[in-house]
Amino acid sequence: RPFHVEPTNIVSANDDMQRVTDEASAMHKRIHYYSRLTSPADKALVAPDHVLPAPDEIYVYSPLGTAFKIDSCTDGYGKNSSIVTIFVIWNTMMGTSILSIPWGIKQAGFTSGIILIILMGILTLYCCYRVVKSRKMIPSIDTSNWEFPDVCKYYFGSFGQWSSLLFSMVSLVGAMVVYWVLMSNFLFNTGKFIYNFVHDINVTDIVPGTNGSNKVICPNAAGDHPPQNMSTMFSSGNSTGFQLFEEWWNKSQTVPFYLIAVLLPLLNLKSPSFFAKFNVLGTVSVVYLVLLVTVKAAHLGIHLEFNWFTENEFFVPEFRVLFPQLTGVLTLAFFIHNCVITLLQNNKNQENNVRDLSIAYFLVGLTYLYVGVIIFASFPSPPLSKECIEQNFLDNFPSDDIMSFIARIFLLFQMMTVYPLLGYLARVQLLRQVFGNAYPSVFHVLILNIAIVGAGVAMARFYPNIGGIIRYSGATCGLAFVFVYPSLIYVISLRRAGQLTWPALIIHIFIILLGLANLIAQFLL
């Protein structure tokens, strides 16, 4: 008799094979994801050779802790096309800094702000080139799995290892502090919107602002113009209930503490992989912010007056001595240097790395310019002064503004899913370096998380200025990863190869001095 197999058995065998394949693929993705969260030199989480790869999916690690998946955009061997590589770098760099760019332009002056965004983009791009080239300039060593901190360890020994850890922790903890301040802000405004809507309360008259349906407010001027008639606060309801709500729902005194109940338990989870599924919201949030800015500008119009060095009641000079505050923000806004090697390593055509990196930086700079310039130019002056532009430009729109409410909801949810990933990165980098184990005990992890959360609560309570936090942390970590280490490593490698020239030495010393001046200026202005 000829060999016969029932069709049902064939289907069953195919299903079993598919199930095994799916399980192996899922295992690979989990291992690959966690390997991106630790140092590339750490072999503990590197996927073994016998694990089935998932060629059509690739996870990308962001320096601020976001890891997101690109589906069906590879060449079948785990490599990205140039368009995907450009998008990945753009998406990685776009972060909370975008909310402070309009404020930074106001601090620097409109014309000088535009110039500084372009110049800082070019400077940080050049330093990024030096980072990408640094690994290839090490002879006779396999550096295929190295990231930039590993290069720092090679050139500077234990000092390079621990200093890169320190500055990496500054960027991570700084990001987590900014997130806590912003989450407190967004949660406060969201709760205020819901309460006012439910109780039919109108409090827009308390804060100075424009009239009409597209209202823009100046929160910092509210203290100088207290309402003379308390009845303007309410269209219905009583003042006692509103005042009680204001007492228990305060942006700096109560709301930052409410977040502890939700986020501190999440930080203590051993695995943050669940939250990585929501990181696509980061891209959605940026796209929505661009849409919001465009719609608001279309309704508000353009309000510009060029005063080159003098200040008047409604406009700021085109050039201001406070410009280093913008350069501090931009240092973090263009910061990708500690993971750019990994991002470009997944590029299918390695010969296009320089081109793709340049295009990505151009798009990032264009996005920052668009948001910053449009918000600054459309800010209604008069009747409001340009000085009213807030460090978080969403604060210039009242809590009952529908488009701003949607933006705050998007950003709040996205940040609450990214925050545990940032905490996991901080835990892995610090505890593994100090104790040799990313989870030495519940006690160690709890103490670290309490310290990080405490820093966020303290800043949200006493210094809720995201522009200030971003520029301080950006100038600090940027001094090492953007200005000093790339320049020093390039000079040392040229000297060892006997190719160092005086122009190259002078240029890179000048870059180091710029980074140092950028950091010092943050504490003087």
TrEMBL record:
InterPro entries: AA_transpt_TM
TM region(s), chain numbering: 83-103, 109-129, 162-182, 253-269, 281-302, 322-344, 356-377, 405-426, 438-463, 469-492, 504-524
Predominant place of localization: membrane
Domain of life: Eukaryota
The reaction(s) this protein catalyses: L-glutamine(out) = L-glutamine(in); L-asparagine(out) = L-asparagine(in); L-tyrosine(in) = L-tyrosine(out); L-leucine(in) = L-leucine(out)
Membrane topology, from the record: Multi-pass membrane protein
Location of the Amino acid transporter transmembrane domain: 81-192, 232-521
Record localization: Late endosome membrane; Lysosome membrane
Protein name (Swiss-Prot/TrEMBL): Neutral amino acid transporter 9
Organism per entry: Penelope pileata
